[in-house]
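Hey, resending since the last one bounced:
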Amino acid sequence: MDRKKIRRHLKLYRKVLVPMNIANISYTSGTTADPKGIMLSHLNYATNVIQANTVLEISQDYKTLALLPWDHSFAHTACLYTFMLKEPRLDRFRQDGRQWKH
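The structure tokens again:
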């Protein structure tokens, strides 16, 4: 996707996304208590990314390997969204080790 198309999409998303709308329902396994789901808003994630950005120095040439489950809120914040803010390249790999095609 070229940058012009990305900008158009972002402009549209900014019109329809409301900070308090639910972005994700993250479920816990209940290791220390009963299993439950927590609702996280777009504002929750945006605030976490802004705060993480104050302590994580991420260069555009950095790469990350996320070992946490994608449904883990720290994985979202530190391994994905904070990196997206700084625009480094995000690659995804399949379980067999081959890279996903974009």
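The chain has a mean pLDDT of 76.

Sorry for the duplicate.
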